Amino acid sequence: MNVLNRPLIFLIAGWSGFFVMAVELLSGRILAPNFGNSIYVWGGIITIFMLALSIGYLIGGRLSIRKPSLKKLSIILMVAAVSTTPVVLMGDAVPDRIFTLIQDPRYGSLISATMLFFLPTMISGIISPYAVRLLVIESSQSGHFAGLLYFVSTFGSAAGTILTSFYLVLYFELNHIFWTMIGISLLISAFSFFVGQKHVENN
Amino acid sequence: MSKTIKAVTLLLASGVMGAYSFCLAAESILHTERSLYRNITIYENGSERCMRFTKQTTTRQTCISLKYPDYLVFKYTKMMLGALYLQPKPDKILIIGLGGGTLPSTLSRILPKAKIDTVEIDPAVVHVARKYFNFRITPTVNVSEEDGRVFVKRAIKKGNRYDLIILDAFDHDYIPEHLLTQEFLGEVKQVMTPGGVLAANTWSSSRLYDHESATYESVFGRFFNLRFGSRVILVKNDGLPSRSEIIKNAKTLEAQLKTFGVRADYLLPLFSTSRDWRIDARILTDQYSPSNLLNAH
């Protein structure tokens, strides 16, 4: 295994954790103009993110069975980033349209959150179990690596939460934050794609 | 030396006892409730009954005088009624943020025929307003329990228009950020009649003051800025009336408003149009609205 592979797997998992929580926090701002900031809206958002992650974990576990590679993991990160672009491009239009159909803030925000955030969050969810598979060589070490990976990805989530809510929103517009994060995802995925490509057979 | 210690001890002891007895005399708690959004406490301190959302007594949401129930306890409530100097006979009124219901109760006394829609996000606040602050739902006064922005969006769709809109959803500790953006104020403007008036109570201080002012100006142009402890912004959709018109309206209303402790010689000097803020301050939008962070700075 290439010396860079393991750090890159952790980087992808940690960054993905950061990404998901930053998007989740900002999603409240995207829905607020139409559905407000009531507890129902946050309930809807958290429900959709949790549901999307849970299904992502399921898919990630299945995908990891056949010929897992860092190259493929990089592609998953890239797809997650690309699937976030509708959040920026249609962040106004989708909730506006949903509001004309459903004005109940509970179901309106639930449907809007599903349309905008389900797919990118689900794809981000694929990353963690897939990354565990790449890290584990012997089954006796599986718990050790799973623990390390949970640590890195959840630590990334904590960092994404505090940086976004305390600082990023103070200086930047929502869309600038989204584009920058999508850009970082693409950079990380491109880098690990090319590094991982040459050495994946060793795994 | 020992004399000093004695004196200090005595001073401390009397201070503690004084504070203790002050607390005892200061308040008796009538009701506490943990709602969806906050901890609500209703208490009395001799002459007043108040509601607060935090543990400190310093940030009161609303108060009524037990002895003179008509009298408006807060300066800002009186300043909000200054909106009537701009629009003395509103037929349809929208109030976002209920609190103890002081403003709808007072306005429905002054204008018995006016149709008043109030919006409050927290059902528990509606409950305590009715139980402890004499707030009444009547054929002309109703309450919607929902987010203010959702209500306004829906009002635009239905084509509802208001002659007077009162925005009273902020407090010292928390600002609903989506109710302080250029887009939201644009939506409010859409539900105002051509001669409609907006009165906004904001607690903004420090850096937020500049941003808030720039945001209001970007939507409504010039506005009356009443600052006296709190801050009230008064806006008229078709431009601010002349001072002589305001004075005329104030005189007409004087007898009616006196009951509530609102007097022209108190309010009129507060009507300022000077731009005492940083004009280049960044405008708050749905994309950029860190109001609470700005207010904390």
List the helices and strands and how they pair.
The complex is a heterodimer of chains A (203) and B (297).
Chain A: H1 5-35, H2 39-63, H3 70-82, H4 85-89, H5 93-101, H6 105-135, H7 142-171, H8 174-199
Chain B: H1 2-26, E1 28-34, E2 39-44, E3 48-52, E4 60-65, H2 75-81, H3 83-86, E5 92-96, H4 102-110, E6 115-119, H5 123-132, E7 141-144, H6 148-158, E8 162-167, H7 182-190, E9 192-202, H8 206-220, E10 224-228, E11 230-236, H9 243-258, H10 264-267, H11 291-296
Parallel strand pairs in B: 5-6, 5-8, 6-7, 8-9
Antiparallel strand pairs in B: 1-2, 2-3, 3-4, 9-11, 10-11
Helix pairs in contact in B: 6-7, 7-8
Greatest interface by residues involved: A-B, 21 and 25 residues
CATH topology of chain A: Growth Hormone, Chain: A
The helical percent of chain B reads: 25-40%
Structural class of chain B: alpha/beta
Q: Main sheet of chain A, how many strands, which sense, barrel?
A: none
Helical segment count of chain A: 8
CA radius of gyration of chain A: 17 Å
Strand-pairing-aware structural class of chain A: mainly alpha
CATH class division of chain B: Alpha Beta
In sequence order, what are the helices and strands of chain A, one letter per element? HHHHHHHH
Adjacency order of strands in the biggest sheet of chain B: 7-6-5-8-9-11-10
